[in-house]
């Protein structure tokens, strides 16, 4: 999936250029919150493992991996 743009993030061990596929404004003060993101594919996605990483302007917050499969098992 092509990115909207790339940005440079200032991390503790140096700068890193990352592709941006989605953006969301998050307030870090106050009570805990769940961060969600929705992407809509413009074309059919191929089977495989995808990784989503979350960054702020100056920190890496974490990532998640998920798998797209072309078939499902029913039990």
Q: Averaged pLDDT, please?
A: 83
Number of helices: 0
Order of helices and strands: EEEE
Strand content: 35-45%
Largest sheet: 2 strands, antiparallel
- Low-confidence segments, given as residue ranges, are none
Report on the architecture of this protein.
It contains no helices and four strands. A hairpin with a 4-residue loop joins β3 (48-55) and β4. Strands 1-2 form a two-stranded antiparallel ribbon. A two-stranded antiparallel sheet has the order 3-4. Helices cover 0% and strands 41% of the residues. It has strands at residues 5-11, 14-20, 48-55, 60-68. With 75 residues, the chain is mainly beta.
Summarize this structure briefly.
With 75 residues, the chain is mainly β. It is 0% helix and 41% strand.
Can you give keywords for this protein?
single chain, 75 residues, mainly beta, two-stranded antiparallel ribbon
Present the secondary structure layout.
Blueprint: E1 5-11, E2 14-20, E3 48-55, E4 60-68
Antiparallel strand pairs: 1-2, 3-4
């Amino acid at each position: 999936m092509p990115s909207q743009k790339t940005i440079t993030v200032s991390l503790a061990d140096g700068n890193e250029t990352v592709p941006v596929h989605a953006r969301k404004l998050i307030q870090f003060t106050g009570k805990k919150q769940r961060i969600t993101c929705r992407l809509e594919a413009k074309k059919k996605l191929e089977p495989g493992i995808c990784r989503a990483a979350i960054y702020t302007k100056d920190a890496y917050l974490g990532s998640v991996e998920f798998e797209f499969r072309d078939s499902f098992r029913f039990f």
